[in-house]
Amino acid sequence: MTTKAEKFKKLNKLNYTLMSKADLYNLPLLTGIYDFASNFFKFKLICIKNDDSSVVKFFWKGSHDTASLDLWGKISNDEGIYIDVGSHTGLYTIVSLLSNEKNLVVSIEPSLVNMGRMISNLRLNDLAKNNSRFLGAASKESKIGFFKSNTDFSHMSKGGRISNEGDQISIIRLDDIKFADRRNIKGIKIDTEGEDYNVLVGAKAIIKLFLPKIIIEVRENNKNKIKLFLDQFGYKFYLVNDIKNNVDLNKVSIENVINVYASIN
Questions:
Q1: pLDDT tens readout for residues 99-134
Q2: Is 100 found in the same domain as 24?
Q3: pTM, two decimal places
């Protein structure tokens, strides 16, 4: 634990919840193993000189992505296969394995640096056993492509995406994954910086067969396509912090990006 950051936080009673990411990164650096929690799950994550923004946000603000993580954990109570598309450093993978230790979680992550950190975080929390990993991206077709990151090569990246330039990577359709485990696919989480609709298209057979519960990032420019695609299978849509009242995505104004829960129930 970085004592300088702890001391600063104790002595300076600032309103950290209102600070931007840039403001937080101007505070003392975090290096060490840190506690992370949602309302229902607790685990530990590694952070080296602020290289994991999830840890930074949680340390200073006391919460990060709580509604989505708790909902994903609730979904994951039902034993089966779960696919974490854009797994970053492992938050959703960890929560799915904590929720039910018998689950198989397939983690798809294009960044080698992120993947390495996720493996370390899984080991740190004794959760590496039932995890299968694909170093690459998911989209509507399987091919070789490129991934462009918006951070330094040694930094955990959350803003990278499939591009016409950058590092060469493998891209896979979820429908092309060969599962030795014959259990049902119960849930898919998709966080791919705008590639989200294409990931759905590449999972059409899985969705048609298993009707998994889905948590997906939705933007103003892709909400209609996502709605039309999932409508054909009978999905309803909910905001992750209100799963009792379904919403019409076309009537939801999205300023940047939101997490949406899609289910046939």
A1: 999 999 999 999 999 999 999 999 999 999 999 999
A2: no
A3: 0.93
